Amino acid sequence: MTALRALTLAEGRLYLRDAGTVFFALAFPTVLLVLMAFALPGMREPIGDIPGFAGLRPIDLYAPVAVAMAIATTSLTTFPAVFGTYREKGVLRRLSTTPLPASRLLVAQVSINIAALVVAVAVALVAASVAFDVAAPSQPGVVLVGFLLGAVHMTALGCVLAAVVPTASSANGVGMLLYFPMLFLAGVWTPGPLMPAGLAEVAAYLPLGAAAQAMSEGWFGDGLPVTQMLAMIGWTAVLIPVAARMFRWR
Q: What is the phi/psi pair of residue 52, to 5°?
């Protein structure tokens, strides 16, 4: 445990030294939320007579979307890129010859990225509350469960990427190929009730889309998003064994 703690602290310091990583992981969801609120017309005006959403504003609907964006950012961009860099530079190969199990590096990186995710979500929600008076969740417990399940299965997906990417550039490339379509399905461009019904139905079964929908239901609805939660549990059950089986330390 002492070795793991020392490794985690060392990796954390390296993480904080990269200004680009810190901005993208911790601040990007908040910055995008603020820019959309001020740059897009009608974002702070009531939506209208959409059933279940009357009186809300588009910016309100983006609160759970911003949380989903933070999950995607840490799991698909910053996390796999570290392992691509270490594999490219031979760090993983050298670690495999030391008494310290190389798997400790994975544990350390997961811990750092989970901490970064918590900070990013806290910053986004505080900004949304203070700057735009975004509505509080109607079912905080459902939002929390949706967030936890989303973080777990998306981190598992990040582990799959980290397991196979040979370089930092390939990690960034593959991560971005997944990142932007997932943001679309999570509602970054068409949040909540504005998403076409057929697309929303498909997104409910896909990574991140299920998390965003579950948190949105907890935020604005009064039901239990069983389908989305089961989808996230299913993705977790599939992705964790796949990552463990595919992980290469060289």
A: 85, -10
